[in-house]
Amino acid sequence: MIPKRLAKNDIGTFPGQTGGRTGGKLREYIEAIALALLLALFIRTFVVQAFKIPSPSMVPTLLVGDHILVNKFLYGTKIPFSDKRILPVREPERGDVIVFRFPGDRKVDFIKRCMAVGGETIEIREKQVFINGEPIEDPHAYFTDVRGGYVVPRDNFGPVTVPEGKLFMMGDNRDNSNDSRYWGFVDLADIKGKTIVIYWSWDKYRKWPRFGRIGDGIE
Questions:
Q1: 177 is known as an active-site residue
Q2: Which uninterrupted H or E stretch holds 121?
Q3: pTM of the full structure
């Protein structure tokens, strides 16, 4: 019996060949990779995102070379291609360390600590922060210039009232931070999320990981 000849466009295998099986495995790998990429994109967009600290403005809370994770749903999930947020767990509060788009260039991400929210009046007198006329506890503030001769607006600022829907942000490294004292308020729509944890830290001067910082929560 003469075997039937396969047409040029027929798809099949002869005994001992594995072409179809190989094609199926390849398709499975492609589908798995595509699913993993979609899941990673979803997580990055709506759940958590990684950032690297490039400057010393948040010393000693965050050091240059710290890699951090940011909670992106705490203040509400952002609807893609808009500034609207839905299902917020809570609003930003004083003391939160927040990543946001820099008002001077919204393509650049900044990280600072929230010092006042909408409706509050903030003032700085000789480095001491006052909210609504009362001095506040400021345990994260770090100063390198203690010579006196206080500088405006770095050491003496305000009073100013924060508009509703805005935040007043400051770096913990108060004498070396470019923040709301110089460029104004941050819009709630520009917030990316609240910092959670340091998942990796690299000391570029020693060329060595800071193992003791890995896993530290950010207060």
A1: no
A2: strand 121-125
A3: 0.78
